[in-house]
């Protein structure tokens, strides 16, 4: 981090903490230069950066002032789903999303893809090209069902950062995290079983469980600390739950990182009730803080945690390279993998192995963590500025997903249909519940390169939200008036 970036972050923290109030004049360039022992140019660059983030505003011949702004919206409260096993619905809405025609003019806030335009991707492109130009026969041949040994060795190295000590023989390469989660479910569960999930939970997880004819019980989840271990314990006492499935690091859609103590409590509970833990760590490497958070798998002593991940969110989804460390379920997962897709494609595995081994992956991660964190600051500022009061916004600690909760009677499905003509896309909240809860919520991808076009799309979204909220308030007022008149 450069000196001016460090100074800008320090000033931003002071503004967020209220040390510099809204509308207050900031210290002069010379004062800050003396105070922090940096050049005047460094202070000016820091101020320009804060101006780009819309945290400060210049006044001619007067200096810089904290931009007047609304208070930051509160974080969503702990969820309150119906705590009983239910059949998973919402497939129709998911299918509608899958059938959407790609539109280059649309702003895809609903996308689950990372930014793939960074220069740190260049070594991967070169590795893929080099393998093809060398006419390496491995590129066109079958790999073992376990996957490329070269890649499994590198994945085992990477796992050390998350506290895991895995051998290459503990790892199976899969066709993305999608297959990793699918074989994990089928290895640990059978048709008719009950699986506990976070609420809200990634809709892809929901549909995988639905495809395996498994019921789910949604567990209350805090937007800062994750799944309620206390609520899960109550559910385990009442229902024959077979497994718990969760995204504890840089959660999708809430963005939290589950505290280490809560991870330990969850594992202890799973051991007590002898259930499996299916851990999705696909966003874990994108935590803003370093070292990255540990996985629940790193605490596992009896092999009950099936750790799933991929390079779809950290590098690119089109590579379709994921992996699973299934612990005691290893033989069952191998069977599911063999009877499902068999061997995975060799070319992307070999390219990623080289990308990691050469140091390119870690360089790319450092770039992306910083990039997403800066983008989050921009999006948070714009949401605070553009959106009406009465909303709640998540506080992501990594990844690139933001969750916005609107008033209870709000209909994000209707809003999505209205904004589709305006080329603004987002994911409706009801997809993240087995029973269609969170219709008043939406998920945004803040990893998009910020531009005037993106800014205009956010303004359109915010304006549409404001109009819909006013309409909703008027409808409620009319219903209350009618009810009062009928007494």
TrEMBL record:
InterPro entries in UniProt: Aminotransferase_I/II_large (IPR004839), HTH_trans_reg/aminotransferase (IPR051446), PyrdxlP-dep_Trfase (IPR015424), PyrdxlP-dep_Trfase_major (IPR015421), PyrdxlP-dep_Trfase_small (IPR015422), Tscrpt_reg_HTH_GntR (IPR000524), WH-like_DNA-bd_sf (IPR036388), WH_DNA-bd_sf (IPR036390)
Keyword DNA-binding in record: yes
EC number(s) per entry: 2.6.1.1
Location of the region described as Disordered in the Swiss-Prot/TrEMBL record: 60-79
Matching Gene3D superfamilies: Aspartate Aminotransferase, domain 1, Type I PLP-dependent aspartate aminotransferase-like (Major domain), Winged helix-like DNA-binding domain superfamily/Winged helix DNA-binding domain
Family to which the UniProt record says this protein belongs: In the C-terminal section; belongs to the class-I pyridoxal-phosphate-dependent aminotransferase family.
Full protein name: GntR family transcriptional regulator/aspartate aminotransferase
Source species taxonomy: Bacteria, Pseudomonadati, Pseudomonadota, Gammaproteobacteria, Enterobacterales
């Amino acid at each position: 981090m450069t000196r001016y970036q460090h100074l800008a972050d320090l000033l931003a923290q002071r503004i967020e903490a209220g040390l510099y109030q809204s509308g207050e004049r900031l210290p002069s360039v010379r004062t800050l230069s003396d105070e922090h022992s940096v050049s005047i140019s460094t202070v000016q660059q820091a101020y320009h950066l804060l101006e780009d983030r819309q945290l400060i505003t210049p006044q001619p011949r007067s200096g810089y002032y904290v931009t007047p702004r609304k208070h930051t919206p509160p974080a969503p409260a702990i969820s309150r789903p119906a705590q009983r096993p239910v059949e998973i619905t919402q497939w129709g809405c998911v299918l509608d999303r899958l059938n959407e025609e790609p539109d280059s003019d649309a702003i895809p806030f609903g996308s689950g893809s990372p930014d793939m335009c960074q220069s740190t991707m260049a070594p991967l492109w070169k590795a893929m090209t080099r393998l093809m130009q060398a006419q390496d026969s491995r590129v066109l041949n079958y790999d073992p069902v376990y996957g490329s040994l070269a890649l499994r060795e590198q994945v085992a190295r990477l796992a050390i950062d998350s506290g895991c000590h895995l051998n290459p023989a503990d790892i199976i390469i899969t066709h993305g995290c999608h297959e990793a989660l699918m074989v994990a479910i089928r290895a640990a569960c059978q048709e008719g079983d009950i699986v506990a999930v976070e609420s809200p939970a990634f809709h892809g997880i929901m549909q995988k469980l639905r495809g395996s004819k498994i019921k789910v019980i949604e567990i209350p989840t805090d937007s800062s600390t994750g799944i309620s271990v206390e609520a899960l314990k109550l559910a385990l006492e009442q229902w024959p739950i077979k497994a718990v499935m969760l995204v504890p690091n840089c959660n999708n859609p809430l963005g939290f990182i589950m505290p280490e103590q809560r991870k330990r409590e969850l594992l202890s509970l799973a051991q007590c009730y002898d259930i499996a833990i299916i851990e999705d760590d696909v966003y874990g490497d994108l935590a803003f803080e370093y070292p990255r958070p540990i996985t629940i798998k790193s605490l596992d002593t009896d092999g009950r945690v099936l750790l799933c991940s991929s390079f779809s969110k950290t590098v690119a989804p089109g590579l379709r390279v994921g992996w699973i460390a299934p612990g005691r379920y290893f033989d069952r997962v191998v069977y599911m993998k063999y009877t499902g897709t068999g061997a995975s494609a060799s070319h992307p595995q070999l390219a990623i192995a080289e990308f990691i081994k050469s140091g390119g992956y870690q360089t790319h991660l450092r770039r992306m963590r910083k990039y997403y964190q800066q983008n989050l600051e921009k999006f948070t500022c714009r949401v605070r500025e553009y959106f009406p009061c009465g909303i709640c916004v998540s506080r992501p600690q990594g990844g690139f997903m933001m969750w916005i909760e609107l008033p209870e009677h709000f209909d994000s499905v209707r809003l999505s249909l209205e904004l589709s003509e305006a080329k603004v896309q987002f994911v409706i909240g009801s997809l993240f519940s087995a029973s269609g809860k969170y219709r008043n919520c939406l998920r945004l991808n803040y990893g998009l390169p910020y531009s005037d076009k993106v800014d205009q799309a956010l303004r359109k979204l915010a304006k549409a939200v404001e109009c819909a909220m006013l309409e909703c308030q008027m409808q409620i007022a009319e219903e209350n008036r009618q009810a009062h008149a009928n007494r």
